[in-house]
Amino acid sequence: MADKFRRVCVVGVGLIGGSMALSMRRMGLADEIVGVGRRIENLKNALQLGAVTGYTRKIEQGVEDADLVILAVPVRAMPELVKSARGHFQPGAILTDVGSTKAKMIKAIEPLLAPGVDFIPAHPIAGREKSGAEYSDPEIFQGRWTIITPAKSSSPKGVQRIRRLWRALGAKVELMAPEVHDRILASVSHLPHIVAYGLVGALLKLDRKTPLLRFSAGGFRDFTRIAESSPEMWRDICLENKTEILRAMEEYEKELRRMKTLLKQEQGKGLLKFFETCRQVKGKIRNSNG
What is the pLDDT of residues 236-248, one digit of tens each? Predict the structure, then answer.
């Protein structure tokens, strides 16, 4: 059973931060949840929805007396926020996050931690393209993976408390090294977004020559849905996980060249075999997720 927290501070009450807060409140896992953010209107929405019990625009105020602090902002904004709040964490507080990249972020944050703060990095793989407290969904984590990537400073007790929290929110939990996390997510999450942005960008250029976007069907609309994600968030993800994303892009480029060759040479059997192999992937994903 998950531990109950007395005061929780959620820095960034967007889709994931807001959903965590709303789920924790509905399950009675926190007596008080304070939201921290830049936009007052979004914080007011979070309060009205019942995700938070109060809010402030100053992280220094938000983290005071909090026994759990959740960073739910773009990863490149996290170190500066931790630095600003350094002298205001209470001893023994757990600091966690929901960022999509880990290795560089952990390396940047660990030297900034105040003594006694227990840093437990985590990543719920449950994002959507919409952002803001208004899209908070307490069921968003049900049956989805959350990966915990312990840092050198993470205590076993803190890891277990965050593990229990995510399980209470409905997530399946896996522990792995930050570098392994970044390599996996570069392939299954970051690369698909790169591909989506690239395809949308290419068709925007073609549309200037010959209007074609109005004829787009479901397939292309799926790509535009992915490309609708937060530009700020994806800029940070790409820069933070550059090495692994470039490695994944190289593998993708190899497959594109392979298909290009098959098409040029009109190798119908080769194309059919390739398409049939790729068709099986969805079933494998479905089976692996139970």
Answer: 999 999 999 999 9
